[in-house]
Please model this.
Amino acid sequence: MKKLITSKKFLCSIFGHNIVTSKEITNNLKEYKCTVCKMELTNDEKGGITFLTPELKEINKALDTFCQKKLMVKQH
Model:
């Protein structure tokens, strides 16, 4: 299994990542994932893209929950 993961990372290092949006938190905040090596990314505070760390994943989850609750209140 480890050999397969290493070869996928090798492919991405040669051909580049195939990044797709995996989750839209808000209009400006999204999570991304490479379809080849499964690397996860997100937007940073400056609008750039950075690696999705466990801390950032938790922040994104909290923000998503907050936005969902806000939408529910707004609709009622």
Observations:
- Strands lie at 19-24, 30-34, 40-43, 49-51.
- The helical segments are 2-15, 54-75.
